[in-house]
Amino acid sequence: MAKEYRIDDLIASDELYHHGIKGQKWGVRRYQNADGSLTPAGAQRYKDEVNSKERYIKEGTELQTIAKRAINLDDSNSRRSKRLYTAYTEWDKTEYTNMMGNFMYDGDPAYKNTFVVKKDMKVASDRDVVEAFLSIAKKNPEAVTKDIANAYNENALFFKKAESKWQKKVSQLTNDPNDAKNIKMAEEYVRNAIVGQKSTTTDSFYSYLTNKGFDAISDTNDRKTGASQDPLIVINMGVIKQTGSVKLSANDLQKYYDIAMSDEHIKKSRDLKGIQR
To answer: Per-domain residue ranges for the chain?
Structure first.
């Protein structure tokens, strides 16, 4: 039975009593389960906190990209020679191999392309990415608006948005990288515009970041949806070296499917010790 306190006891006491938050249980943190594992909200909060600061991916780290063909970084005509969507945690590697190879490519061949970080790779913080977006949006709002509108409508299945609606949002941007509306628009840009087929401002966006000394940014689209742990977009090809490209067989893809669907793999989704910070 819980001890009961009289008002006189509380007034006379020089001790501080913390009565907690409604619904909170002693010994269980807000973002943790009873066994100490992270809740989905806790995992997302951790990933966001990691990306709130500039950081480095260590020299020697292996990167992996699943694609429909073998990647050749020396091919200057390839978009992948300028930027690379990639994974480095073991959980992400398995998840992307299964997702891309077994589902996204719809029967087309899948290649596992591997790379190694030649020197510590500097990753921009989320704030740095917002600042880069604001810089190009202020200099060329018409082009940024068109890129976002085109890319969004390329991917939209049903509800497309007129360019005028995006124009209004871009016109309302401020210079504050911490402003919620600015952050949301920067995420929209990264999610849609930089991968758009008609984008004209992508190079300016990445140039801003590389001129600041950054080699990679977080792939916020996949990170924010919880589809992966710490996906990256490499924007400076000079810090990585290609180590291989292998076509995945049907047996390979079945193996990755079995692993990805296993209870052990699913449970490890919120084991974030592999994230470098």
So the answer is: 55-123+220-270, 126-214
